[in-house]
Amino acid sequence: xxxxxxxxxxxxxxxxxxxxxxxxxxxxxxxxxxxxxxxxxxxxxxxxxxxxxxxxxxxxxxxxxxxxxxxxxxxxxxxxxxxxxxxxxxxxxxxxxxxxxxxxxxxxxxxxxxxxxxxxxxxxxxxxxxxxxxxxxxxxxxxxxxxxxxxxxxxxxxxxxxxxxxxxxxxxxxxxxxxxxxxxxxxxxxxxxxxxxxxxxxxxxxxxxxxxxxxxxxxxxxxxxxxxxxxxx
Length: 233
What we know:
Layout (H helix, E strand, L loop, with lengths): L8 H20 L8 H24 L1 H7 L10 H28 L7 H24 L29 H17 L2 H6 L1 H21 L3 H7 L10
């Protein structure tokens, strides 16, 4: 099997800018304002974390980095996974778009206090770290649920996979809750339940696929009981 190389630098730069730019677009369109410091700080954190994760993967696993640049809808992906991925993207965008409306116009619930907001930023950083740690541990952490026989897929039980079976989704859950808390929207943190619920649905799809297609996954699931939250589920 040929050794994969990371995408060209220009493509990596575009990829590094894309996620923070999307986040800024969702937050700063009316009724958001350009003087919203918490939002600028979050966009800066997203940019720094994206660049750092890409640099880490470019050095440690260029094949996975190349896979992460592919679209979230691909050939060989099940129809159910395609639907859930597209719904998740829409739910994420909707949840983030709701936050500035709530902060500046709706004010459905009292905003979190300073301590809770800072904890929200801590959840964002912890979530990003967990996602990168999962990608470092699992070279098969591609964006879609599909067979990876061409990459000789195997069960990974190291790093965060020794604690929960889906650490990338656990990290995403921390991000989804932490971002609206940092931005000052308690209702936004509750709205994050919608994309989180779709992650739970996708876990079910992925588990069914892996149990049927990946030798040793049943034994691994027997050892690591928790799917998303240690000791809970």
